[in-house]
Design brief:
single chain; 8-stranded mixed sheet; globular; binds S-adenosylmethionine; binds iron/sulfur cluster
């Protein structure tokens, strides 16, 4: 029997606006309580989880908020999600977690669970600029997950308040083999009244991008990103790794849904003026297939400005959320990108470095659980090719180091 081609789809669902912490930049906070009610248990099951399963048999639901674990139906939803054979991410501040709760979540999800812990800096002072937790508490949660053999990653929201410690934070996480996702600060929710903490092009060039480039375990969705399109195409084809894993994933492998069911190409674009519909009115699978904003961002051929003529247009694509907040148009150029391409032939000086780090990142995904369960090729040949590619690139890179 011919197997279904592997794909990747992550629905980041802000399940509630309720929270037990009060981060000053929080993008989900609204001044007035929304007129509409948050999605009910049944709505989440059928309008989110069932639809994700329909869109991608190996899809994922990232449960976030507010604080998802405050929802009374959190365990019921996790059980339903794993009953559909889907992995769950839980993006959490960690306050309500303890060893007992972690064990219960592992049981409810039948092990198909990955935590995303928010840590803005390993440096306590920088972390406390934006969050009321302490880095040591987050590291303690990571140790609990190690004990239970549960996967996790750290989520760093990058602002001018923590960017100077970003390199130190990423080096620490690299040493501990902890993958990381960067969230660029956007002026959404409470963030809209403190726009000044957002970074600029100069910050990106001198401080943020060098730190991000240096840690390959951070290579999911960051921009500007300079891996060569030829290298990425060859690697993707060979290993069946979806294009949307790198660079901006908005509407490609990743979308957002807010607590009231409104959809956006990226979670950072929720509550904005972009009209991508509501799962209460239109099935998520239909929105993905027919909404013009989703379609044009997924396709990428209408991307404008320098991103539109850039060699890295598809492997990077520029942060569509930052483009929107700067211009009102998600198809415009990334405002904090420091690369100035004349046309599609202009190469970045960082291309070789990025290609080599992509190989390191793919090796990490292939060799470590649970990542090799999620990013796994389904066909026998792709599995075989992945193993020989991993061994081949590993030999090459260790040979070079001698
Ligand atoms: C809104 S929180 C909800 C999950 C959980 N309560 C927590 O604090 O991790 C999800 C992620 O969004 C990030 N975030 C919050 N406000 C943001 C903003 N204005 N721009 C970008 N990311 C933001 C947080 O740092 C966190 O990693
Ligand atoms: S718009 Fe793209 S690059 Fe920006 S945060 Fe969203 S997925 Fe990431
Ligand atoms: S110009 Fe746009 S696509 Fe090119 S590297 Fe910069 S952000 Fe990426």
């Amino acid at each position: 029997m011919k197997k279904k081609k592997r794909d990747f789809f992550l629905c980041y669902f802000e399940s509630t606006r309720e929270c037990n912490q009060d981060c000053k930049y929080c993008m989900t906070k609204k001044d007035i309580s929304p007129a509409e009610k948050e999605l009910s248990t049944d709505e989440v099951k059928h309008l989110i989880i069932d639809e994700v399963k329909k869109i991608c048999a190996q899809g994922l639901v990232a449960f976030s908020g507010g604080e998802f674990l405050l929802r009374k139906d959190a365990f019921e939803l996790l059980e339903y999600n794993s009953g559909k054979e889907l992995y769950a991410f839980i993006n959490t501040n960690g306050e309500v977690l303890d060893p007992e709760k972690i064990k219960m979540i592992k049981k409810a999800t039948r092990g198909k669970i990955i935590f995303g812990f928010s840590l803005d800096s390993i440096d306590e002072n920088a972390h406390s600029e934006t969050r009321s937790s302490k880095p040591e508490e987050i590291l303690k949660l990571a140790r609990m997950c190690n004990k239970e053999k549960i996967g996790y990653f750290f989520l760093i929201t990058v602002t001018r308040l923590n960017m100077n410690s970003l390199d130190k934070t990423l080096k620490f996480l690299r040493e501990h083999n902890i993958p990381t996702l960067r969230s660029p600060f956007v002026p959404r929710g409470a963030g809209s009244s403190i726009k000044e903490i957002g970074f600029n092009k100069d910050d990106m060039e001198k401080t943020i991008n060098p730190a991000l480039r240096g840690n390959p375990l951070n290579y999911v969705s960051f921009t500007p990103f300079f891996a060569s399109p030829e290298y990425m195409k060859k690697t993707w084809k060979l290993l069946e790794i979806p294009i949307s894993t790198f660079g901006c994933q908005a509407a490609r492998g990743f979308i957002g849904v807010n607590a009231e069911g409104y959809v956006a190409p990226c979670v950072h674009l929720l509550d904005s003026e972009l009209d991508c519909g509501n799962v209460r009115k239109t099935p998520l699978s239909e929105i993905m297939a027919t909404n013009h904003i989703m379609k044009s961002l997924a396709d990428g051929s209408e991307i404008k400005g320098k991103c539109g003529k850039c060699r890295y247009k598809h492997s990077c694509r520029g942060c569509r959320a930052l483009a929107y907040y700067a211009t009102g148009d998600p198809l415009e150029a990334d405002p904090v990108c420091f690369f100035e391409p004349e046309d599609e032939n202009t190469r970045s000086d960082f291309e070789t470095e990025c290609n080599e780090k992509v190989a390191e990142f793919i090796r990490f995904l292939a060799l470590n659980k649970p990542w090799n369960r999620i990013f796994r090729p389904t066909s026998f040949w792709a599995k075989l090719k992945t193993i020989s590619w991993v061994l081949g690139t590993y030999k090459k890179s260790s040979g070079r180091r001698k």
